[in-house]
Specification:
This protein has helices spanning 3-25, 37-44, 67-72, 92-100, 127-145, 185-196, 198-206; strands at 27-33, 50-58, 78-86, 110-111, 114-115, 122-125, 152-155, 159-161, 175-178, 181-184. It is globular and about 50 Å long. The chain is α+β, with helices and mostly antiparallel strands and 216 residues long. The longest helix has 23 residues, at 3-25.
């Protein structure tokens, strides 16, 4: 191979690697807890710039918790969602803004019809910059509502994905047996969300600022 051709190949390879690195640097993650993780996953997978939202657990000490363990309480974990997003398309600040307006952050006992430790709200931050953003958004939300916000703000720790049966529940056509007979998970999810009154409560609290209520 001629020296000139070698230089050209090296330059192209370097540019490809540099481009891949630049692209990778825009991919960020955010962990939030907003009650039922199916609902948070559904909401945020509709946001432009969000690549994926995964249902799981965070905030506690028990490693690799199961759904039943978290549901029973005592693990310290809450139902959480890990949001992977392109920071060139949607900012961390914007996601926090949307999150606070998709829940009732004034409720210390859970969310809507889901009560207790596993359903309490939380925002997990990575680094001082993210913490400052979260606190600023909370201050703005408190001013808007005229109420104290009790959503906890903590450093991000381990996130444990729930089993596959809990992923993409809102759009799964897999059948389950319910009191209505065999029904798809997607239809069961819709009935659950409606019966729980999540969207009605968020709209009553946030009014026109509620970002997802009209989508369900």
């Amino acid at each position: 191979m001629s020296p000139l051709k070698y230089i050209r190949i090296a330059a192209l390879l370097g540019a490809t690697i540099a481009g891949s690195t630049a692209q990778a640097e825009t991919i960020e993650k955010l962990i939030v807890a907003g009650g039922c993780f199916w609902c948070v996953e559904s909401d945020f997978e509709s946001v432009d710039g969000v690549i994926e939202a995964v249902s799981g657990f965070s905030g506690g000490e028990r490693p690799n918790p199961t759904y039943k363990q978290v549901s029973r309480g005592g693990t310290g974990h809450v139902e959480a969602v890990e949001i992977t997003y392109d920071a060139d398309v949607v900012s961390h600040e914007r996601l926090i803004n949307l999150f606070l307006r998709s829940i009732d952050p004034t409720d210390a006992g859970g969310q809507f019809c889901d009560r207790g430790e596993p359903y309490k709200t939380a925002i997990f931050y990575s680094g001082a910059g993210e913490k400052d953003t979260v606190l600023a958004e909370i201050a703005t939300a408190e001013k808007t509502l005229g109420k104290d916000i009790v959503t906890r703000v903590e450093p991000a720790g381990a996130f444990y994905a729930a089993d596959e049966g809990h992923q993409d529940y809102y759009k799964s056509e897999s059948l389950i047996v319910s009191r209505f007979g065999p029904i798809s998970k997607a239809k069961a999810y819709k009935r659950y969300r409606d019966a729980c009154g999540r969207d009605q409560a968020v709209t009553a609290l946030w009014g026109a600022e509620a970002p997802f209520a009209d989508a369900h």
